[in-house]
Amino acid sequence: MLARTGGDSFVVLVHHADARGAETMARRIVEAMAPSFTLEGAPFTVTCTIGIALYPGDAMSAEALLRHAESAMRGAKEGSRGGFRFHQPRADVDLRSRMRLDHAMRQALAQETAARPPESGLAPARRDGAERQGCTDSRLRVHYQPQIDLQSGQIIGTEALLRWRDAELGEVPPAEFIPVAEESGFIVAIGEWVLDRAVRQAADWLAQGWRMPVSVNVSALQFRQPAFVDGVAAVLAAHGLPAELLELELTESILLRDADGALQRVQALAERGVRLAIDDFGTGYSSLGYLKRLPISRLKIDRSFVAGLPADASDAGIVRAVMQLAQALRLRVVAEGVETPAQRQFLRDVGCDEYQGFLYAAALDSSAFEQRLVPQLAERLQ
Ligand code: C2E
Ligand code: MG
Ligand code: MG
Predict the structure, then answer these.
(1) Least confident window among 93-97, 168-172, 263-267
(2) In angstroms, rounded to a whole number, what is the distance separating the alpha carbons of residues 159 and 88?
(3) Residue 192: pLDDT above 90?
(4) Is residue 153 predicted with pLDDT exceeding 60?
């Protein structure tokens, strides 16, 4: 049974079908919608996104089934246009706590921005700690994880990682709040804030004579904003940071979705001198042909492949394969999540360029980061 329930929303009720039957139906609908059609001489393409809920496994009432189907559809829309997705039970159960998290995050950001009116780009971020001493409420901050050259052992860069401590919830890990922020769209605002902080920090270091490239994670939704490229340029200009001291970390899925649009944006950023890295490399589905066309400078091997080094044969094989690929494409390689000397030795042996991980340091606040940097600078001066 096919029903139209709103402007552009339709419901299909399929009797006596299991998950496979529902999937077949979804594929047939997507296929049927795919060809373009003409209306009064003009060609049109219509895409559709489908969410699927199953009776009785997902819900017993029509109302709940429709709700689940709808949230699955929203999930599918986020993924890629024109697909379908099944209801995933977990997502709905903690909806309330996710909303609470989202609300608390928005308050935290509002507080950060209210607490510090726009100021000169050279205001040292190190002052943050002192300014906020005694301040026990919700706090967002950016920490910096050193990236180490495997040959020289020197810090050659740093990744900016967002940290959030909520007055009630305590320290909330990014793995929990970033997905919520992505779903609600708040990631755009929070991502801009992190970018601003990190660029300001790098500019501050530069003013002190330290050229320290900083890498900032970029979320899919943030990257898709029409004004993203201009926004990045504006932040660099505002703080007077040379573009080559900023690297943006993009994931494979960001680059593959709307591949042509992504390529254009990546090229526009590269033309402005901004460096680009592919984060969590190996966990997505990069096409080699596409990779070749991208003006990126580094691949970051996902830490799931580093974990089993050196003993695990498949991890070792994957890391070697990534090294070969990177050599062919003339890209540098950073290994993530290096925790043991044996992992580091393996990576050095296969020609990996850089690493980051708890073995050297976790993400540090800016003053702790500087403390790690000072001996290195002193050494260089000798
Ligand atoms: P990522 O970009 O892949 O960041 C690396 C993560 O690995 C960080 O987790 C880091 O703390 C962790 N890590 C570093 N060394 C080790 C190690 O030796 N062992 C282990 N087990 N883990 C290590 P974190 O900070 O919890 O961040 C998780 C993810 O959240 C990040 O993964 C990134 O995708 C996202 N994220 C963090 N900050 C931001 C941000 O400002 N914007 C966006 N869009 N995403 C962010
Ligand atoms: Mg990253
Ligand atoms: Mg990563």
Answers:
(1) 93-97
(2) 33
(3) yes
(4) yes
Q: Which ligand does the CA of 280 lie closest to?
A: 3
Using CA atoms, how far residue 353 sits from 30, 60, 160, 167, in Å, is 45, 55, 19, 40
Phi first, then psi, for residue 358 (nearest 5°) are -60, -25
Which segments of the chain are extended strands (E)?
Answer: 2-6, 9-12, 37-39, 42-44, 50-52, 84-86, 139-149, 155-166, 170-172, 214-217, 246-251, 275-281, 298-301, 332-335, 354-355
Does the C-beta of 247 come closer than 6 Å to ligand 1?
Answer: no
Contact assessment for residue 30 and residue 50, using Cβ atoms and an 8 Å cutoff: yes
Residue 119 has pLDDT above 60, yes or no: no
What is the per-residue pLDDT across 206-219, written as a single tens digit (0 to 9) for each?
Answer: 999 999 999 999 99
Q: Among 187, 199, 217, which residue has the most ligand 1 atoms within 8 Å of its CB, making it the best to mutate?
A: 217
Residue 173, classified by CB atoms within 10 Å of its CB into exposed (0-12), middle (13-18) or buried (19+), is exposed
What domains appear along the chain, each with residue ranges and CATH number? 2-87 (no CATH), 109-381 (3.20.20.450)
Burial of 361 (0-12, 13-18, 19+ CB in 10 A): middle
Spacing, Cα 302 to ligand 3 middle (Å): 5
Q: Whose CA is nearest to atom 2 of ligand 1?
A: 217
Q: Is the CB of 192 under 6 A from ligand 1?
A: no
pTM: 0.77
